[in-house]
Automatic annotation (TrEMBL):
<keyword id="KW-0732">Signal</keyword>
<dbReference type="InterPro" id="IPR004843">
    <property type="entry name" value="Calcineurin-like_PHP"/>
</dbReference>
<dbReference type="InterPro" id="IPR006311">
    <property type="entry name" value="TAT_signal"/>
</dbReference>
<feature type="domain" description="Calcineurin-like phosphoesterase">
    <location>
        <begin position="157"/>
        <end position="363"/>
    </location>
</feature>
<dbReference type="GO" id="GO:0003993">
    <property type="term" value="F:acid phosphatase activity"/>
</dbReference>
<dbReference type="InterPro" id="IPR039331">
    <property type="entry name" value="PAPs-like"/>
</dbReference>
<dbReference type="Pfam" id="PF00149">
    <property type="entry name" value="Metallophos"/>
</dbReference>
<dbReference type="InterPro" id="IPR029052">
    <property type="entry name" value="Metallo-depent_PP-like"/>
</dbReference>
<protein>
    <recommendedName>
        <fullName>Calcineurin-like phosphoesterase domain-containing protein</fullName>
    </recommendedName>
</protein>
């Protein structure tokens, strides 16, 4: 892994970004939380952002989008461009009303089917309980997607990590994704430096580089340690929608697409919960243990267990190099997460995982399988055009081919992985 000088460079990079961000937040008067919907009337036209597909299953898909004033909305969808069905997201009998975030989940779909959809957003002027005025609905562009399915004989994924709010990095990454789309994109942590406002969440998750990067192919998120930091970090689920029915583990995922099983885990912070910097707010150690129990069950699901290829994603590497910080001491910060390794590796080994994809260190590397683990570990690079990476996987019945390139186009390696035995 990186030497002490490179680790110092990484820390200096993050410190400078955080210092600049805090100063900017203070000047702008950033608040910890925005109201769900503004009561004041606005003469400005409503602006609705592009949809972001998330949390795909074989029979459902979540859609999130941004607004800039109080509004409600739903998703109109169907198997033809004429649409015809509607998906709402009511809670306790109320349809949503929010000034920044809207979302809905389409359910009852057929695996592998093409679905056409658009968002429909209506501005709301809410003076009081007896004076509510709905504006003219705004229909978004019609997009299409396919629900995941085990049936295709080929499938692909792309991985981003450690973008750290760097606009030129986001522009390069979303541009490459648009030029060569994958079936599924995994954003493998550290989208942020730390989270202080709704504006920041929208800019990074729902409108990165102001591009509709996930309107036709869904994105799968794993959290990085910087994505759980900041006074507003708990609001991230407004845009990074949690997976339903996962009992407090809403950022874990297990998705089957063609011959690929993709599993995502959340390594959380890079220091022990007892570290004084967290002021008693961190509770990641039991969280990682609970994910181990979830992982054992997820890997036994029929769709995951029968996939020819099993690829696992988490932000902090599970394996380090000699002398690396394991993240369970009060000194320094993790270069790898020893607790997660101990909680998760036995299940990955038993299931025959073939590849672990991580980030965090800001230095690209590939660790060959060894006596400790039968799977390789690939670590994506950092937030610059020369150091940032896109990792891609393309699988068919015979081979999973994994490639890594820098954001400025330099090839970093290619690896070929045969199907799992068993």
């Amino acid at each position: 892994m990186s030497d002490p000088a490179s680790r110092a460079d990484r820390r200096d990079f993050i410190t400078k970004l955080s210092t600049l961000a805090v100063g900017a937040g203070a000047l702008a008067g950033v608040t910890a939380a925005a109201p769900a919907a503004e009561a004041a009337e606005s003469d400005a036209p409503l602006k609705a952002g592009p949809p972001v597909l998330q949390n795909p299953t074989s029979t459902s898909m979540a859609v999130a989008w941004s607004v800039d004033q109080a509004a409600t909305g739903f998703v109109e969808y169907g198997e033809t461009p004429e649409l015809g069905s509607k998906a709402y997201a009511p809670e306790n009998g109320l349809n949503p009303l929010n000034s920044r975030f809207l979302q809905a989940r389409i359910t009852g779909l057929t695996p592998g089917n093409k679905i056409y959809y658009r968002t429909v957003t209506t501005p709301i002027q809410f003076a009081n309980a007896y004076k509510i005025v709905a504006g003219e609905p705004i229909q978004g562009e019609v997009y299409e997607f396919r629900t995941p399915s085990a049936e295709p004989t080929a499938a692909s994924f792309a991985v981003l990590n450690d973008t750290h709010e760097k606009l030129e990095v986001l522009q390069a990454a979303t541009g490459q994704l648009a030029a060569e789309p994958a079936d599924l994109t995994v954003w493998n942590g550290d989208i942020f430096n730390d989270i202080r406002s709704d504006d920041q969440i929208i800019a990074q998750v729902l409108r990165p580089a102001d591009a509709p990067f996930a309107a036709q192919r869904p994105v799968l998120y794993t959290s990085g340690n910087h994505d759980v930091r900041g006074v507003h970090a708990r609001a991230l689920s407004q845009a990074m929608i949690e997976w339903p029915d996962q009992k407090g583990l809403g950022r874990n995922f297990a998705v089957r697409q063609g011959p690929l099983a993709l599993v995502g885990l959340d390594t959380g912070e890079d220091k022990p919960d007892a570290h004084p910097v967290f002021a008693g707010l961190a509770n990641f150690e039991p969280y990682r243990e609970a994910q181990g129990a979830w992982l054992a069950e997820a890997l036994q699901r029929a769709d995951i267990a029968t996939a020819p290829y099993l690829v696992v994603f988490c932000h902090i590497p599970l394996w380090g190099r000699p002398g690396d910080n394991p993240g369970d001491t009060l000194e320094g910060y993790a270069s790898y997460c020893r607790q997660a390794q101990r909680a998760w590796h036995p299940h990955l080994a038993k299931a025959g995982a073939q590849l672990l994809v991580c980030g965090h260190t800001h230095r690209f590397r590939y660790d060959e399988p060894n006596d400790q683990r039968a799977y390789g570990q690939i670590v994506g690079g950092g937030p610059s055009l020369s150091g940032g990476t896109i990792i891609r996987g393309k699988a068919d019945e015979k081979t999973l081919t994994v490639t890594a390139t820098s954001l400025d186009g330099k090839g970093l390696g290619e690896w070929r992985i045969p199907p799992r035995q068993g």
